[in-house]
Amino acid sequence: MISRAFIFLFIIFSVANASFVNEEECLNYTVYPVQYELTIVPYISDFSSFFDCHLSINVIANEPGVRVIELDAKNMDIDFGSIHVMKGNVDIVSKSRPYEYDNLNGKLYIHLSEPLIPYNLNTQGYNIKLTYRKVLTEKSDGIFLVKYADENGENKYLFTTRLTPNKAKYFFPCFDNPRFEAVFKFRVYVVAKNHVGQYTNTSIVIGNEQRKEVNPQKDVIIDYTPSPQVTTDQVGFHYSRFTNIQITSKNDIFMVWAPGNTLQYYNFILVYGKTILDLIHEYSGVNRPLVNGPIHLIAVPSERVDGYEIYSWNLLTNRANRIAHQEEFTSIKQLETMTFDLAQQFSRIWLGNPGELQRTRWREEWFKEGVATYLAYYFLAQYNQGVNKPSRRQPLGPYGLEMKFKAMAVDSHRTTPPLGNFNKSLAAEIPLRYRDLITMKTASILWMVENWIGSDKFHQALVKYINSRRGKYISLEDFTAAMDRDTIECMHQFFNGSTTSKILHSWIHQSGYPVINVQVLRDRTPNAIQLNQRRFSFSPDNRHETDYLIPISYIVQNNENCYNCYKPRFTIGSQTYTFGENLNGGWIVLNRNASGYYRVNYDTTTWQLIASTLAVHHESIDELNRAQIVNDVFALYVSGDMELPLAMEILNYLDKERSPVVWRAAEEGFRLLRNEENGCHMTRYLYKELQDFMRRKVAPTYDSLSNSHDFKTRLFRSDVVNFACSLKYKPCLDNLKYMYEQYRRSNMRLDPDFREACYYMLIHDNAYFGINRLNAFEQDDRRVAEHRLRDENRFIMKTPVGVPRPMPIIMSTEATTLEASPVITEKYLADSSTSIIPSISIILVSILFAMR
User: Fold this and answer.
1) Same domain for 379 and 501?
2) Residue 759: inside a domain, yes or no?
3) CB-based burial of residue 533 (10 Å sphere; 0-12 exposed, 13-18 middle, 19+ buried)?
4) Who contacts 648 (Cβ-Cβ below 8 Å, separation ≥6)?
5) How many domains does the chain contain in total?
6) Rg of the chain over CA atoms, in angstroms?
7) In what side-by-side order are the strands of the sheet with 253-258?
8) How far apart are CA 213 and CA 16, in angstroms?
């Protein structure tokens, strides 16, 4: 008989998860797992590494007549004589046809001598038992072997799992459905020292240690507490000879595990993790731990581990060089990625995980991913400003632009679906090509709403809602309703009845993003500003009308009497929206703080006024707005919505620009020139002309770079060097070549912040990399450089050659002969490409011949 404890466990399980199970109509399994018990005995050696496992699965039947139990199991040696299905004390496995194992498709079929009885309170469950052996290599799926060198240079090995998505069947026979939840109970043997195998002393699973005992063979047997109800891809197991450093935040214990001789490289991530945990606790205002037990972070020295698994909450694994901070090897960009990734993972944990005392579930997992991304950037903004009090909240600023540009790069394609299409998708099942869409676009829309209703009000409402839903479901509909209740005030009712819920829904159920066309009618007082929207697209045949509900904010050049510059309270929809504003002959710039998820195209006069201001006193426009203007200009030109002379006139001021935010926006914008869908009829000649133009613009900034080693300066310097290198700026290339030669001769180490640019230069020139083997940090930068160059070469190969663009000329009015000499304007000579100046002589000859 199944024990009363099991029945009690299942009743609790049923009550807690009834709504969850009932609403998942797609579950077509006839048998449902309730609890897995795994007894694992690992063996590690230089010759063969494997583990033996005794598995017990408590299951129930969902419908009558079931005579075959179907388990997922792949690439494992099953002891078929150990397979039993126990109905109480009776084994009901068929004697004539007990099992079938299809290793190719990863299926184990257990045939029964009698049908299963569907579960109810008057019946019982069943217990599946079997034993298997899993041989591990470095190429195994799900759970695999990792080799590394210890402090003596000797080879050591570890076992680690990566079960997302649908790879649990490589670890243990199971019902590998990401919607099935069960309790997991582990028992692990730490085998005693011997002359054959590697001695290990570290065993970590998703449960907390309950007790240890030593058997007569001196093996240490560790029993773990039963886990919360989790899916198979939330299970984790790690077995090694690692050691740890740990730190305690206000409510949580954070531990980092690595080989003992490398622990000093993880002090940064340890202290940083504590700071982010403290920020989360300050932000939430609730004095409770994120999880029940320590949070383990394991540095896995393997390229197969790339980032965190989305569903992990207390056993986090990441590639060692993704969390290590070595001054001589970690670049500032790698450090930036490292800090964002951990902040995002901790945000996921705070928003809901199986290890919290009251389980929070999200009906739309893509929405949880977007909120976690928004919070990660928010906590990074506080971290970089040293802020740990909600009353001193720092805005997202540059981080907001970063996530917006990443989202737009994906969202502009014609086949990109709306966010609402992912409502039924699990986060782990969303294709990688849409990962930036669901994370960055959702975060960008939240940033837009935050700036519209006010930062303090937005964050207070967000925290209040998340705290109120502990132990319950969170849905997008419920979230937006709560935001409406907590952010609308009668005295500040929005002009056209727009609310947070209406805005969010208009963006979630439409794909892409809009461009707002601004037409200023200057022949009346006050001036009339007309706004209308359509979908932004680089392809001319994908520009249909849209109905986004867009929060409008703006600044004006002469703002003495500008009411809406300080209280942006209106939105526009599909119809043309007209409002009055006295511009006094100046410009208007929409999207104050650049927080709106849209682009803006002005009439020619307004663009020219903006260009004049940028040329004379660019800092009179906020740097976030300058960054948005620069990026929009590139995008509008590529899409065919702006002529090249006007675009170059606006961008001409960049040689005076020293803002890191603007230059990152310029680099992102220049990358848009390589978009295969474009309305500007891009050619190789045209691309080279723009490359020459930007080379001259970046030169003064490159020449003025500081040698300071603070975070922001290092990041800016790295961005500018990478951009100048990709533009083939000769002083930059010469400096990189000199640095690399010095590195090869061992006179100086290669600055990690310049390493990616060096590799780009070497790969472009087919140069020799040297005999030294690249470490993991260097390999990452080489892969990034190869990807950048491959994208550029693919674009060049697919782009027609074209012809040089005609040079602008001015005919002299004083000429009295037929050989009148055209005069090239001084301004154009200052800005034109030296590579196409020889074409001037062709134009001169053509004109003279025509005049004769």
Assistant:
1) yes
2) no
3) buried
4) 693, 831
5) 4
6) 31
7) 243-248, 253-258, 295-300, 315-319
8) 34
User: Which residue shows structure tokens 């140069």?
Assistant: 767
Q: Measure the CA–CA gap between 389 and 482, rounded to whole angstroms.
A: 24
Supply the CATH number for residue 488's domain: 1.10.390.10
Q: Which of 204-213, 542-551, 800-809 has the lowest mean pLDDT?
A: 800-809
Q: How far is CA 821 from the centre of its chain?
A: 58
For residue 95, the SS3 value is coil
Burial of 704 (0-12, 13-18, 19+ CB in 10 A): exposed
Tell how many helices (H) and how many strands (E) occur in the chain.
21, 32
Using alpha carbons, select from 308, 275, 313, 273 the residue that is nearest to residue 292: 313
Give tens-digit pLDDT for 273-285. Answer: 999 999 999 999 9
Distance in angstroms (rounded) separating the CA atoms of residues 614 and 780 = 38
Residues 279 and 383 both lie in one domain: no
The mean of the pLDDT values for the chain is: 87
Domain boundary among 446, 473, 508: 508
Which amino acid would we find at residue 636? L
Same domain flag for 457 and 345? no
Last residue of a domain, one of 338, 359, 380: 359
- Asked if the model's pLDDT at residue 344 lies above 70, the reply is yes
Q: What is the pLDDT of residues 592-647, one digit of tens each?
A: 889 999 999 999 999 999 999 999 999 999 999 999 999 999 999 999 999 999 99
**Residue 462 — φ and ψ, nearest 5°?**
-65, -50
Domain extent at residue 481: 360-508
CB of 383 closer than 8 Å to CB of 276: yes
DSSP 541-555: T--------EEE-EE
Q: Which helix (H) or strand (E) holds 776?
A: helix 776-798
CB atoms within 10 A of CB 670: 21
Kindly state whether residues 353 and 366 are assigned to the same domain.
no
Identity at 629, one-letter amino acid code: I
Same-domain check for residues 426 and 497:
yes
Angstrom CA distances, 285 to 155, 289, 661, 724, stand at 47, 12, 32, 46
- Provide long-range contacts, Cβ within 8 A and 24+ apart, for 453-461: 453/487, 453/500, 455/393, 455/395, 456/393, 457/486, 457/487, 458/483, 458/487, 459/283, 459/390, 459/393, 460/486, 461/486, 461/487
- Altogether, the residues listed in the chain come to a count of 852
> What is 548-576 written as a DSSP string?
--EEE-EEESS-TT-STTT---EEE-SS-
554 CB-contact burial (10 Å; exposed 0-12 / middle 13-18 / buried 19+): buried
Residue 657 lies in a domain: no
Give yes or no for a contact between 178 and 27, defined as CB atoms under 8 angstroms apart. no
What's the pLDDT at 805? 80
> Cα dihedral sign for 629, 633, 636, 639?
negative
165 prior amide bond cis, ω within 30: yes
For 694-726, how does the pLDDT look when each residue is reduced to its tens digit (9 = 90+)?
999 999 999 999 999 999 999 999 999 999 999
Q: How far is the C-alpha of 128 from the C-alpha of 58, rounded, in Å?
A: 6
Task: Say if residues 414 and 677 touch (Cβ distance below 8 Å).
Answer: yes
The answer to whether the CB of 259 falls within 8 A of the CB of 242 is yes
Q: Side chain identity at 640, as an amino acid letter?
A: G
Q: Which residues contact 322 (CB under 8 A, 6 or more apart)?
A: 306, 307, 334, 337, 338, 341
Q: Is 620 helix (H, G, I), strand (E, B) or coil?
A: helix
Q: Are 554 and 588 in contact (CB under 8 A)?
A: yes
* 334 and 374 co-located in one domain: no
In this structure, are residues 599 and 517 in contact, taking their beta carbons and an 8 Å threshold? no
